[in-house]
Design a protein that fits this description.
Order of helices and strands of chain A: EEEHEEEHEHHHHHEHEHEEHH
Distance between the termini of chain A: 46 Å
Number of domains of chain B: 3
Helix content of chain B: 55-70%
Number of domains of chain A: 1
Oligomer: heterodimer
Largest interface: A-B, 28 and 19 residues
CATH topology of the largest domain in chain B: D-Maltodextrin-Binding Protein, domain 2
Structural class of chain A: alpha/beta
CATH class of the largest domain in chain B: Alpha Beta
Number of strands of chain A: 11
Radius of gyration of chain A: 19 Å
Number of strands of chain B: 10
């Protein structure tokens, strides 16, 4: 990603300004920042849900503007912030939707769906024929992850997937994702505003503030050598809060 | 109707009910179907082409505000034909709005989050629409179709006015004959039909809805659900069956007459016309080998005339004064002979239609008041009304309010400025004056209700109203192909004077007899009275037991052609 900028108001203000970054094959990169810092916009630019105003983005060494948007998206699993399951389709149909678009034969689709539902902890014989509104929030998000993985994409884009869950479920899913990550070895771009989630899941963490890159690096590097005052305050503030809570108890 | 038992009434009309229900289903089904085929794609198109949305919805909305009868009349004028086609087009136009609007609303209402997900996982535009947006909008779209179909059943009753048949025909006939039972005989099945269609589409929607509660799945439940899903198909098939079999049911009603050439007889929508139509039909049926198709109750003069000119009916009874002023747009003339000669010549030249011998009576308009009012104020002539007019409320038929030989002309010859003029249906006009809701009406001189309701026609002392002698008007090609029609109809020439016509009208309007029975009784009585003279065509006697045999060839009553008959 080179010198990427995005403005929604014809250049008067920028949501993302001159962002350059390089994502390694197989790593999990977490985009961390507060609401409105441009992290979701950055994620959506990767699969062309949003087109950048300036700069270029390359995937597998090719400019994505020159690639077919639909084909590009099918190569990237996407887990949406608001889950975004199709309410008129069963769990099974939701999971197999991308393989269906890719024209997989029924048998292969069925086998893959069962495998994935097993993987995310939803036994297919119990869950395959249910509709999304018959599931709890955590179960729905598991389906969302299964759907993103269905066509075995090389890249996984996750937009605050656990944001709407309660603490217990969130932790459970975070642990499951860690396990999945080790097993599947995908390149994952993960958006969150939760510092602990970022520290837990990220191989590298990228901190965004008001559309600008503050720092990118492995967690030890960021914690030990914060590049900007913003980054230092971010972690120091969190540590202080934590200490306060500990002190009280 | 006091003369018939309810069961007799219903059982006698069942085959026709079958026929009319079939026609009604056909009208509603075709129009809803066409509206769906146009409306859903149009809704999708409007969803994608935002700039088209407002103009298109505006046009469709305006179509919806056109009163149904005006729309039918307009299409009639545009297509130059009566029957099912203009009716289906009108119904389709009405069905369009709910379908297009619901399609658009449904498509717009799909959550943007879900749509972003559809795009984000790599669906093309078309796939997003087909796999996500349309399925999610479907319940709203189906609800629009449901509204359209149910409203369509209601509006379809009006298409009987332009000869498209359907259950409205009973309602129409009932209105023309002031027969509540007949009105209900059309209205109740129409209401039931609307309920059935509403239920069918509702059940279909329920059947399509995804199953939620896993606990309630059982074999019976599954059968009910799959039945609900195919219910619309079953109803459509049933409708097609009813429609296709209708004419057979109808033929069964009219006994098994040998299939020969068909003469189509039309009438306007009031009692006298129905009786005259029946008289002409029965004479032709008895005197010739021709079969008669009755397309009665076609509405007003212009509809009948248009149908005759287009060859959709072969003949109907018209009034000389009406032909002169309303059709030929000629200033009124008061000499009956001159009028008849004029319309004869002009119809032959312009419409290829022929006026046969008049029936004898003169059904002129009669400005009519309540007898006790007339007595109290000493009203005898229309001129007597001039000073009182500003205090009087008038109730006129819509036709009378418009026609040159009606109120516009009348108010030039007489100084009449009424307090208020209301357009009333002929059937409602008489009860309205009897109940004191209006004070003056434009009665017809031959209307039996004038005498029966204690009304008083005022004398046309300035000779404004042209004569309205009724006579059969027949298409010349039809006469050429079946010259026997003229001979048969000539039997009716001069047979009915004003008093006779008043009596027949009252038998229907006042005593609740059916026009067909009144006509049959009249013809039988005439035959009895004439027995001694009628031995001219004994060989042609074909009427079986109970039917009236042959009438004499030339009527002995010469058309009297009296000036103006005030009753």
């Amino acid at each position: 990603m080179t010198q990427v900028s995005k403005s929604f108001d014809k250049g008067r203000s920028y949501v993302i300004k001159d962002l350059s970054l390089n994502i390694q094959q197989g790593e999990t990169l977490v985009l961390l920042g507060s609401s409105g810092c441009g992290k979701t916009t950055t994620l959506k630019m990767i699969n062309r849900l949003i087109e950048p105003t300036a700069g270029t983005i390359e995937v597998d060494g090719r400019d994505i503007i020159k690639q077919d948007a639909v084909a590009l998206r099918r190569r990237m699993g996407y887990v949406f912030q608001g889950i975004g399951l199709f309410p008129h389709m069963t769990v099974e149909q939701n999971v197999e939707v991308v393989p269906r678009l890719l024209g997989w034969p029924v048998k292969r689709r069925k086998a893959r769906t069962d495998e994935l539902l097993q993987l995310v902890g939803l036994p297919p014989q119990e869950f395959a024929r249910r509709f999304p509104d018959e599931l709890s929030g955590g179960q729905q998000q598991r389906v969302g992850v299964a759907r993103a993985l269905a066509a075995d994409p090389d890249y996984l884009l996750m937009d605050e997937p656990f944001g709407a869950l309660d603490a217990l479920n969130r932790e459970l899913l975070q642990q499951e994702l860690l396990a999945l990550k080790r097993e599947l070895k995908k390149t994952i771009v993960f958006v969150t505003h939760d510092i602990f989630e970022a520290l837990l899941l990220g191989d590298r963490i990228l901190i965004l503030h008001q559309g600008r890159l503050e720092q990118v690096g492995a967690k030890q590097e960021i914690l030990s050598r914060p590049a900007t005052p913003f980054v230092r305050n971010l972690f120091a503030g969190t540590a202080r809060q934590l200490a306060d809570v500990m002190g009280v108890t | 109707m006091g003369t018939e038992t309810l069961t007799g009434f219903v059982s006698e009309r069942l085959p026709e009910l079958w026929l009319r229900t079939g026609e009604h289903l056909m009208l509603t089904g075709c129009s809803s179907g066409v509206a769906m085929l146009i409306g859903i794609p149009l809704g999708i198109l409007l969803f994608r082409k935002t700039w088209l949305r407002n103009p298109a919805m505006g046009v469709i909305g305006i179509l919806q505000t056109i009163p149904s009868l005006a729309m039918l009349a307009f299409l009639l004028a545009l297509l130059h034909r009566i029957g099912a086609l203009p009716a289906i087009i009108a119904l389709t136009l009405y069905a369009l709005l709910p379908i297009v609007r619901n399609t658009l609303t449904g498509l717009e209402g799909v959550s943007p989050q879900v749509m972003e997900a559809a795009k984000g996982i790599g669906m093309t535009e078309g796939q997003q629409l087909r796999m996500v947006r349309i399925p999610l909008a479907a319940p709203v779209i189906v609800a629009g179709i449901r509204t359209a179909a149910v409203v369509g059943v209601g509006i379809a009753t009006l298409s009987a006015f332009i000869g498209a048949g359907g259950l409205g025909q009973f309602i129409n006939r009932g209105l023309a004959l002031s027969n509540t039972r007949l009105i209900l005989f059309g209205a109740i099945p129409a209401a039931l039909l609307a309920l059935v269609i509403d239920f069918t589409i509702g059940a279909f929607e329920w059947g399509l809805r995804p199953e939620r509660k896993r606990g309630s799945r059982g074999p019976v439940h599954a059968v009910v659900r799959s039945t609900a899903r195919i219910l619309p198909i079953l109803v459509v098939l049933a409708g097609i069956f009813v429609y296709a079999s209708g004419p057979y049911a109808q033929r069964w009603l009219t006994s098994f007459r040998a299939e020969t050439a068909k003469i189509v007889i039309g009438t306007k929508n009031f009692t006298e016309q129905l009786i005259l139509g029946e008289l002409m039909a029965q004479v032709i049926e008895e005197q010739t080998d021709l079969t008669v198709k009755r397309r009665f109750n076609l509405g007003g003069t212009m509809i009948c005339h248009g149908a005759l000119v287009n060859g959709e009916i072969d003949l109907y009874a018209e009034y000389t004064g009406t032909g002169l002023t309303a059709i030929l747009k000629t200033p009124p003339v008061s000499d009956p002979r001159k009028v008849l000669n004029h319309v004869r010549r002009a119809y032959g030249e312009r419409f290829d239609a022929s006026w046969l011998e008049p029936f004898g009576f003169n059904n002129t308009y009669a400005i009519t008041v309540r007898s006790d009012d007339a007595e109290q104020h000493g009203w005898r002539t229309i001129s007597d009304l001039e000073s009182a007019a500003p205090r009087l409320r008038a109730g006129f038929t819509a036709e009378f309010s418009e026609r040159q030989d009606g109120y516009p002309g009348l108010s030039r010859v007489y100084d009449l400025e009424f307090l208020e003029i209301r357009d009333l249906d002929p059937a409602i006009m008489y009860p309205a004056i009897v109940n004191g809701e209006v004070d003056v009406i434009c009665a017809f001189a031959t209307d039996g209700r004038i005498a029966a309701y204690g009304l008083m026609p005022l004398e046309d002392n300035r000779g404004f109203f042209p004569p309205y002698q009724a006579a059969p008007v027949v298409r010349v090609p039809c006469l050429a192909a079946h010259p026997e029609i003229e001979k048969a109809l000539s039997l009716l020439g001069g047979m009915l004077d004003n008093a006779a016509m008043q009596r027949l009208n009252f038998e229907v309007d006042g005593e609740g007899m059916r026009p067909a029975d009144v006509a049959r009784k009249f013809l039988e009585d005439k035959v009895k009275n004439r027995r001694p003279h009628q031995r001219k065509h004994p060989a042609k006697s074909s009427g079986g037991g109970g039917h009236w045999p042959v009438l004499s060839g030339s009527p002995c009553i010469e058309t009297p052609a009296p000036g103006r008959t005030s009753t």
